[in-house]
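anyone seen this seq b4? input:
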Amino acid sequence: MLNTPLQACSFVALDLETTGIQAVRHRIVEIGAIQCTWLGADTVFQSLIDPQCEISSTVIGIHGITPKMVTGQPFIEEI
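predicted toks r here
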């Protein structure tokens, strides 16, 4: 694999937005996956997630995801 030309490589980048930075205490509110190749990138998957907990105003200011946006969205177990 180390000798594979970059043009032949493909990978998936994951992006998570959360209710905070402590893995034990905070929860995921959005997940996205993007497939990247030499030719560019395509969104493979994206979903908001109901974290079933409060999202602080500080965190809302960082990622812009509000409680109203996640209400009625699937839970992480469903995703």
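Helices lie at 57-63, 67-70. The mean pLDDT is 93. kinda curious what u guys think
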